């Protein structure tokens, strides 16, 4: 099937007989662990307090061997969250985007302050997160569900 036919079919489905009321947004980021390690070495607690919330730091500090990798994964998740929130202008402070680790091991994103206001403005209702780290890199994917304004495709 030619690409134009595929696009036409997708647009017809989305905006025609079966209107969609939800939009899925995906954000991804890859972070070099060395960049986080360098920031911690250069700026210390000032960097940590500016970027991470107390619960994030408490979890990351439970493993000396994985401390920087865990920080890098959380930073990647914050960057991925920004990509799904789509700020138009000033970004929210990093510590207003929080990676919450649940007792069973999975993580989610909690928004605070201006990040929560941005999500509300963008009609983002659900945020899911997956992170990974190995060796020199950490990565994260954030999936967001956003309600489309009525009549918009």
Could you name the key traits of this structure?
two-stranded antiparallel sheet, alpha+beta, Ribosomal Protein L22, Chain A, globular, 153 residues
Write up this protein.
With 153 residues, the chain is an alpha+beta fold. It has one domain: 4'-phosphopantetheinyl transferase domain (Ribosomal Protein L22, Chain A, Alpha-Beta Complex), CATH 3.90.470.20. It has helices at residues 3-15, 33-43, 45-51, 54-60, 67-85, 113-121; strands spanning 22-32, 97-101, 107-111, 124-134, 137-147. A three-stranded antiparallel sheet has the order 1-5-4. β4 and β5 (137-147) form a beta hairpin. It is globular and about 45 Å long. The two termini are 24 Å apart. Mean pLDDT is 87; it is low at 1-18.
Quaternary arrangement of the chains shown?
A: single chain
The CATH C-level name is: Alpha Beta
At the fourth CATH level, what is the homologous superfamily? Answer: 4'-phosphopantetheinyl transferase domain
Main sheet properties: 3 strands, antiparallel
Architecture, according to CATH?
A: Alpha-Beta Complex
Can you write the helix and strand succession as a string?
A: HEHHHHEEHEE
Portion of residues within helices: 40-55%
Low-confidence stretches: 1-18
Could you say which overall geometry the principal axes of the C-alpha atoms support?
globular
Hey, roughly how much beta strand do the residues contain?
A: 25-35%
Rg, alpha carbons? 18 Å
């Amino acid at each position: 099937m030619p690409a134009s036919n595929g696009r036409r079919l997708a647009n017809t489905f989305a905006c025609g007989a079966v209107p969609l009321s939800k939009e899925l947004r995906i954000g991804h980021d890859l972070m070099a662990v060395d960049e986080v390690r360098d920031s911690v070495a250069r700026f210390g607690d000032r960097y940590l307090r500016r970027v991470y919330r107390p619960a994030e730091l408490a979890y990351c500090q439970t493993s000396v061997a994985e401390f920087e990798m865990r920080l890098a994964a959380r930073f990647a998740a914050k960057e991925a969250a920004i990509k799904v929130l789509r700020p138009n202008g000033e970004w929210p402070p990093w510590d207003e985007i929080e990676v919450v680790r649940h007792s069973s091991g999975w993580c989610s994103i909690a928004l605070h302050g201006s990040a929560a206001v941005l999500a509300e403005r963008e009609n983002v209702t659900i945020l899911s997160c997956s992170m990974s780290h190995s060796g020199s890199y950490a990565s994260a994917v954030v999936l967001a569900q956003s309600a489309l304004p009525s009549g918009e495709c």
